[in-house]
Design brief:
There is one protein chain. This protein has 147 residues and is mainly alpha-helical. Helices cover 56% and strands 0% of the residues. It has a domain of 87 residues.
């Protein structure tokens, strides 16, 4: 046998060697999944920003009956109104972004079965206590049934 045929035989033997089963081996996330997650994350953030702006403007009109202030620095806009718009608008924008991005993450986990690339699982040093049932709350006595 020549050198090439020995190398080919060695490669074939290496590929036919028993490997770990796919059920015990965790698939690696490749560059494709990382770029897909980036696209999904950035797209959802962009969509959330557009939706959030509209939500905050509609809610401002519903509460005050006026258009939201365009420029908070303008002298004709009252300071209270500018501060209220900044607080309400900022809170609604962040809330909508949070909800949309959480939905995108949940969709990713349901689709792939794994956390998105770069997101680490939360580890807790202590277990989270479970809430007690209604009967075992402190300050309430258990009632015994009479027969």
């Amino acid at each position: 046998m020549g050198r090439r045929s020995k190398r080919r035989a060695a490669k074939k033997a290496a590929t036919k060697a028993p490997t770990t089963t796919s059920s015990t081996r965790k698939p690696k996330q490749g560059a494709g999944s990382k770029s897909a997650w980036k696209l999904l994350d950035r797209g959802s953030t962009l969509a959330a920003g557009l939706v959030a702006r509209e939500v905050s403007q509609v809610s401002w009109r519903a509460v005050t009956g006026k258009k939201p202030p365009v420029n908070g620095r303008h002298p004709e806009v009252a300071t209270r109104e500018a501060v209220a718009w900044a607080v309400v608008g900022g809170a609604l924008v962040e809330l909508v972004k949070l909800l949309v991005r959480r939905y995108a993450t949940t969709y990713w986990v349901r689709s792939t079965g794994e956390l998105p690339p770069g997101m680490k699982p939360i580890t807790r040093s202590e277990p989270v206590p479970l809430p007690k049932p209604e009967d075992e709350k402190p300050g309430r006595k258990k009632r015994r049934r009479r027969r």
